[in-house]
Design a protein that fits this description.
Helix content: 25-40%
Distance between the termini: 43 Å
Order of helices and strands: HEHEEHEHEEEHEH
Length: 171
Amino acid sequence: MLDPDSLLALLARHHIAAETYDHPPLRTVAESKALRGTLPGVQTKNLFLRDGKKRYFLLTVAEDAPVNLKALREPLGARGSLSFAAPEALYELLGVLPGSVSLLALANDEARLVNFAIDRTLLRAEAIGCHPLTNTRTTVLAPEALKAFLKLTGHLAQEIDVPPPPAAAQS
């Protein structure tokens, strides 16, 4: 399993442009907004999910995007209900703890057991911010750099339109 410095070295070794910023630990989107200062790009939140057939999914969306787990079943191709995966599975498959979930953790999924999905709107941003395996740093990548990273790890990005929550939940 890679640690944060090894991950950043991997990006540099493969000429994947990334800029990394240090900050206090950020465990939630609310903490992130309050403590991180002004970072370039769209910041993300990541959901590590499991379906009824024990298949794992990592979903990356913009930090403010509301997410309706029930409505994600079809776009993700999940079988059975979706739920948050156990922290033990998160660590075993991606090598990170809750609070540090990131698309960059796919570097630790050498067996490619995690299905990766990203909200299509993120790929239209100039830059995307994510944790480099620790919640004390944020690494900012252009969409092209993100795609190069995914190619390097052997993961395909399932680009989806994240369904909005039911109208009653939005008010």
